[in-house]
## 1
Amino acid sequence: MWGNYMMPNTRYVLHHSKMALDEKVLEVVERLGEKYESVGEDLLAHLEGLYYRDYVNYWDYVGVDALLNLQKPRTKYPDETTFIIYHQITELYFKVIMHELEQIGFNENLNKDFFVKHLKRINSYWSALVQSTDVLVGGMDADQFLEFRKALAPSSGFQSIQYRLMELWSTDFRNLVGGDQAGKFAEDASIEEIYEHVYWKEGATDITTGKKTLTLTQFEEKYSKLIIRKGKEFRETNLLAKFHSLSKEEQQDPELLEILKQYDIHSNVNWPLAHYRFAARYLKRGDHVERATGGTNWQQYLPPKFQKVIYFPEIWTQEEKENWGKAWVENTFLQ
Ligand code: HEM
């Protein structure tokens, strides 16, 4: 009975779904034909290729094997692997942030909504990064760290090119001259001239002798040309320039201003402070201060209140700028 009852219905469904499928297939084949014809390619050859092509799988698509083989510790200390992985995670976050910055920068018809949407994404990546730093505070054994780091000099996160490119993408090059010299360059100053005074260069140069750290020298050998080229390229496409390209009305939009402020704080206060916190956790033991692998006077160099890098100075009050990064140091670090 069940069979008799089911048969006609099943046939009916199959017949109709096959017809619907055929129409859909035809439509797709037609579209494919147009696609390949437009570039002078043979549709049939590509369809046959599809027949032989293997299925996409997760491990190849995500590159799992490659990813899991990127950790190459230089010592036998287990926590060195954690150290490498955490740097790699952070670099991937930097990459996804750059990906968003690029979308804003290269958008030729930018409007406030697009700006806000992509900047919100960037802020949520920064937020996740800042929160994740707790992992590193307790994630390694300090004794192991102080041993394996001896094998790593003169390398330092200081040499992260993505970190520098994010800075370049975010603001006018002149705003990367921080500290007491912020705002000292005129609008028509050349990128080469400003580059000599960016905050990170000055932080890694001995003021009295003018001698650069080896970390900086090596970084410059590899990346100076790229940085100068990008500095020029991003003149019109950095976030601050893109903000200025919006209509006057959009530039005063409270939501946009709030989100820009959050971005400035995440990049130039919250993350630098969180990083400073875990650097201090490992490099400071009681009164004893370890030398950094990158050779900076790190306690003077890293805190935002000394760096005073501000991407969007015009949206902050004079008082806020003068107190840049101070509240956290007073409330948290000096307790
Ligand atoms: C125990 C862990 C860490 C310590 C002790 C530490 C220490 C330092 C120190 C002392 C500096 C100043 C340059 C120098 O003299 O070396 C520095 C710079 C830097 N580090 Fe780390 N760091 C740690 C982890 C990380 C991680 C996981 C990242 C993620 C990529 C990172 C990214 C950076 C960046 C981007 C700079 C340059 C900051 C600037 O120029 O303002 N660091 N780090």
Note: Confidence is low (pLDDT under 50) at residues 3-8.
## 2
Amino acid sequence: MELRILGCSGGEAEGERLTGLLVNKSVALDAGSLTGALTVPEQIAIRHIFISHSHLDHICTLPFFTKNVFGHVEAPVEIHALPETLDVLRRHLFNDELWPDFSVIPTKDQPTIRYTEVEPERAYEVEGLSITPIRVNHLVPCVGYKVEDGKDAFIFTSDTTITDRIWEVANATPNLRLLITEASFPNDQEWLAEASKHLTPAMLGQELKKLKRDVPVGIYHLTPGDRPEMLPELEALKDPRVRLLEQNAIFQF
Ligand SMILES: [Zn+2]
Ligand SMILES: [Zn+2]
């Protein structure tokens, strides 16, 4: 399995892209950086996009992506997400007001994108991968994803505050090679992390006690302006599994 980190920042700034992962060139998790990180031919190669939740930093390149691939795809690109998330996309994004409704363009029968509902804890088989949504604890309905290819697995928690189920799933995944999770705000902004349902490095430290596996833990979603404060706080956890997830990194499992 090849995993490419298109973007992993909690905010956008020059050289820092929003959340997006690409697996085996044809399956994306979240769409915060599809157009900024990929050439048009690379975008056209994407067949499935699994969205974790409706927040803008995880979906914002979908409109520009659909415009780029329009007319170049033989079958619709499938957008997989919770029903609540798809509802937001339908009502607030592809609504002909903010952006044209590419789920009926060019035609209803052969559209550019097709919405597919996912149900937590159910495995979806696409492009030789098995992808399982796991519910996490965020401000809006949100799922992380376990991605497996029959040999290896990784888990992306997406945005979450204190949660349990995805750590249980990680502990029960023997072939787990990497876990990606978040830290969004510095320790002195715990009130903000609690209000917006994210984690600080200290809260992450508590969460990592639930992970009984010796696997690399890639941290993403740092707020760009808070990085200098947060990096020492992450180091202070003294957890050898913890490392910063880096934009453009490619993992081969
Ligand atoms: Zn979010
Ligand atoms: Zn986010």
Note: Residues 131 and 147 are 5 Å apart (CA to CA).
